[in-house]
Amino acid sequence: MAMRRATLGRNILVYAILLGWTVWLAFPLYWLAIAAFKTPLAMTQYATYIPWVDFTPTLAAFQNVFGKAAGLDPRQPFTNSVMISTGAGIVALVIGSMAGYALARFRYQIGRIDNDQISNFFLSQRLFPVAVLAVPFLILYRELSLLDTQIGMIVAEIGFGTPFVAWLMRDFFASLPREIEESALIDGCTRPQVLRHIVFPLGAPGLVAAFILIFIGSWNNYFLALVLTFSDAVTVPLFIQTQAQYVTGITPWANIAVITLVSIVPPVLAGLLLQRYLTHGLTFGAVK
Amino acid sequence: MSVSTTERAPLVSARPIRRFSLSDRHYKWILLLPAVLVVVGLTLFPLVFSLAITFTNWDLYSADSASFAGLSQWTRLLGDRGFLTPARNTVVFTAGVVPLEFVLGLMVALALNNATVGRTFFRVFFLVPLMVSPVATSFIMGRTMFDPNVGPIHDLLVRFGLPAVPWLTHPTWAMVTLMLIDSWGGTAFMILLFTAGLQGMPQEPYEAAKVDGASDWQLLRHITLPLLAPVMVAAVLIRALDAFKVVDIIATVTGGGPGDATESLTLKVYNLAVKGGDVAYGAAASYALVAIMIVFATVFLLATRKAVRRATGDD
pLDDT tens digits, residue range B200-226? Predict the structure, then answer.
């Protein structure tokens, strides 16, 4: 009986924590979702919580944002973000997974540097402060006329994505069986054939996960865009921030809410669909 | 050297020795080299370039061309009281969010580990903040929820007869608001790490302890937490380094204000180098930021190494 009581008490505590955290996570998302359906005026008067009860939902903000008479036009930022995240994602995936494969299958020994050290070196890039690279990028891009261009942003994002993919894919390829590749090589396959017919199909889930991680990272990146773009190549996070920052006068909250809502849907959907493959990358390998 | 012919070669080559084919001795380097070049070109070269700039007086918006200035940027940095506030803000922010997210993350992860019904739903839903950009989080929470006039938090406080809180306009409260916003996303990372760590735990110590009649609390205190120590160290280190370079939340919610009460080091570097054009000084400041982070990471890892070894019994 004492045992049962203890279990019950523990369950109450467990579910109190879980439900409490769910509410704390869900409320801002709910608040964003309803904000997108409020009129601009409703956002500036008083707090309202439930559609059809204390406010009437409207598509006005969606029409403002995506209609023809756009006060603030998010189409260019969205196009930029899609191009930059996709372009950088693909290039980083190709170059990074090539290196990841090489680190998983070949042995390197350059002086005292071996595979583990190359791999850790790649990973260490991820924790580096962007600020220290922002200044030289700003100067170099000014000289090369790459400031405020999509291609400039793609190149910069490739620099962040590639080493991370290399580190991530090394672990992934190392977990694939080596024997199939070896017997194919013995049978006379060339390395490119092995890569194309064996490694690529077997590695597909890892490659997709790596692409999603790079895509989300670059989609959500703010500081790089802040430093390297100002009008033509502005990305969605920078666009939201510049619209939402504190200014006196009327801020079009409902319109920004629509843009924010649309901007978080792609990464959240991709992340949730592939969540089982993302854990290793999201935890930086801290957990095996 | 012709890669294309090799690719088109039949699966089983007619000739045992292919004179123009590339062997693994080559592929080993062909596969690795592009990534190395990317890192050298897009990270190492800019880093060296940035270090070189710190010894000049380069100013983007100055008509004079840059010239060698020796260590003057560095001596200027050491004597610059303007960095005291951003440095203090950054340390306060980091020292605030990391323990907050650590405790919350551990609580939620332990609850998740003990849950039976709906476990998958909670586990997946708790990952959502990792996919949402900090700018989006900051807009939702900082600009609308914590709004001093029409935000729901103010509204609910007033409805329950509680005093209004100057969430964004009071220096201390503004920092607290930023910490709360950061913990929305940052805790998700802690939960993910701790959950993964808890799932990978061996079952034997628990079974043995249960036979001996250990209570839930004793299991947690003497088995779970010690075994989780290595993950805890990694979680704290990664989040601390991340929090130390905070900028997006601050730029969106307070812009560094009120006054300079929430200006972080990264924001300061941006204001100096990008907005102000003083790239030489900004570069020096950004290097100081890296130096602090490296010192912190080294000291932290050395300080925790012994504790982790003792906790996990690896000594």
Answer: 888 888 888 888 888 888 888 888 999
Residue B173 has pLDDT above 90, yes or no: yes
pLDDT tens digit sequence for A147-170: 999 999 999 999 999 999 999 999
| A-chain residue closest to B29, CA distance | A102
Distance CA A125, CA A162 (A): 10
Q: How far apart are the first and last CA of chain B?
A: 53
Among candidate residues B270, B18, B9, B252, the one with its CA nearest the CA of residue B135:
B252
Which residues numbered 148-167 in A keep a CB inside 8 Å of some CB on B?
Answer: 155-156, 158-159, 162-163, 166
Q: Does the distance separating the beta carbons of B137 and A191 come in below 8 Å?
A: no
The DSSP line for B229-271 is HHHHHHHHHHHHHHHHT--HHHHHHTTT-STTTT--HHHHHII
Q: Does B134 touch chain A (CB under 8 A)?
A: yes
A222–B32 CB contact, under 8 Å? no
pTM equals 0.88
> B30 CA to chain A: closest CA distance, Å?
9
Cα nearest neighbour of B3 on chain A: A192
Q: Tell me the C-alpha distance between B217 and A272, whole Å.
A: 34
Domain boundaries, chain B: 75-312
pLDDT digits (tens, 9 = 90+) for B20-56: 667 888 899 999 999 999 999 999 999 999 999 999 9
Please, are residues B139 and A260 in contact by the beta-carbon 8 Å criterion?
Answer: yes
- What residue ranges do the domains of chain A occupy? 2-66, 75-282
Query: Could you tell me where the beta strands, DSSP code E, fall in A86-173?
Result: 109-110, 113-114
A113–B contact, CB cutoff 8 A: no
Å from A191 to nearest chain B CA? 7
- Classify each residue of B83-119 as buried b or exposed e, where b means 16 or more C-beta atoms within 10 Å of its C-beta: bebbbebbbbbbebbbebbbebbbbbbbbbbbbeeee
Identify whether the C-beta of residue B92 lies closer than 8 Å to the C-beta of residue B172.
Answer: no
Residues of chain A in contact with residue B216, where contact means CB-CB under 8 angstroms, are 6, 10
Helices (H), A145-199: 150-174, 179-186, 191-194
Within 10 angstroms of residue A271's Cβ, the number of other Cβ atoms is 21
> B40: nearest CA in chain A?
A159
Q: Do B34 and A43 touch (CB under 8 A)?
A: no
**What is the pLDDT at residue B281?**
93
B11: closest chain A residue by CA: A189
User: Domain spanning A75-282: which CATH class is it, in words?
Assistant: mainly alpha
Cβ neighbors of A197 (< 8 A, separation 6 or more) are A184, A189
Cβ-defined contact of A131 to B270 (cutoff 8 Å): yes
Over residues A20-42, the mean pLDDT reads 90
Q: Does B59 touch chain A (CB under 8 A)?
A: no
Q: How large is the average pLDDT for residues B175-198?
A: 94
Paired sense of beta strands A109-110 and A113-114, if any: antiparallel
- Residues of A with Cβ-Cβ distance to B122 under 8 angstroms: 18, 21-22
Find chain B residues with C-beta within 8 A of A32's C-beta.
136, 140, 144
DSSP string across A217-284: HHHH--HHHHHH-SSTT--HHHHHHHHHS--SS---HHHHHHHHHHHHHHHHHHHHHTHHHHHHHHTT
Superfamily of domain B75-312: MetI-like (1.10.3720.10)
